[in-house]
Amino acid sequence: MDNSGIFALTPADLPDFKLIRKYTTEHNGITHISLKQHYQGIPVIEGEIRGNVDSEGRILNIGGDYYPGINIGTVPPISAVDAIRTAAADAAPGVAFEPVALSGPTGPPQETVFQKGAFNTTDAYHSAGLVIFPMQGQFRLAWQVIFHKNSNERYIILVDSETGKVLYRTNMVKFNSPYGLVFAEDPDDAGQVTKSFTGDLTASPLGWLNKDGGVYHTLGGNNVCAQEDRDNMDNGGYSPSRPQGNFNYTFTNAYFNSGGTDLNTDINATITNLFYMRLLQKSP
């Protein structure tokens, strides 16, 4: 451990790192190594060290992130079933889903695989496993749920194992062009789906959305500008904006559920849907 002071590692830390990738580039003999950080057998989110070693065993470079000083309990107050139920409600509100385990729990992360239920038609199943999530100067034991809603929405969702709150959600499916989460038909008949916001390149050669300062927004359409208009002034109202063009807002029906008092929760989803439906009427 000649470099222990540089890397802030002690011999006691080394068992927390597990080799996840190792290969050698044939033309120069350099070996590329990736080590994943664990805590009591549970993977640490973003905790990974990557390094390159020459043919004589010398470290050429090393980088990545690791988190010293983790000291938390690893027995989750809520179960994997509770976590995936929470994740399903977050990603697909209003859709009935009762988790049924297919296998697990396995190992310290308690990895558990669940049946698909009403979601997706592929062979991809939902799963949940414990992770350590570094956030805001602390470490949280969380369930990492892989939730396959449909072919365009496959989420990583982190659910706090103590509070049951969703800490993080991201769609693993990425698009190279703008898109939105919308109701393509009557909401009473079907849920939200992901639709391209590119449009027909002949009818809309610049696309449905134009960029302003590198940011997409629903005021920048080629023939539709969607915004709120609470003061009935026809301009200056709020419009959602997304740097990557991913207008991925889940509609919760907050106005109805609040008895007509909540006007704000679903504003992004509502304007996005208005933008999409008006463009369908105006442009292929």
Low-confidence stretches: none
Binned strand content: 35-45%
Q: What general outline do the C-alpha atoms trace? A: globular
Termini distance? 64 Å
By DSSP, the count of extended strands is 16
Helical/strand content category: mainly beta
Radius of gyration: 23 Å
If strands are numbered along the chain, what order do they take across the biggest sheet? 5-6-7-8-9-10
- Nearest-integer average pLDDT: 83
Q: Quick one: biggest sheet?
A: 6 strands, antiparallel
Question: What is the ordering of alpha helices and beta strands?
Answer: HEEEEHEEEEEEEEEEEEHH
Give the helix tally: 4
Question: Could you estimate the helical fraction of the residues in percent?
Answer: 10-25%
Give the helices and strands, then pairings.
Blueprint (H helix, E strand, L loop, with lengths): L3 H4 L9 E8 L6 E9 L2 E12 L5 E7 L14 H12 L9 E6 L4 E4 L11 E10 L2 E13 L2 E8 L5 E6 L7 E4 L10 E4 L12 E4 L2 E7 L19 E2 L3 E2 L6 H4 L9 H16 L2
Explain how this protein is built.
The protein is mainly beta. It is built from 4 helices and 16 strands. It has a 6-stranded antiparallel beta sheet with strand order 5-6-7-8-9-10, covered by helices on one side. Strands 1-2-3-4 form a 4-stranded antiparallel beta sheet, with no helix packed on it. Strand 9 (153-160) and strand 10 (166-171) form a beta hairpin. The model has no long low-confidence stretch (mean pLDDT 83).
Which key phrases capture this entry?
single chain; 284 residues; mainly beta; six-stranded antiparallel β-sheet; four-stranded antiparallel β-sheet; 13% helix
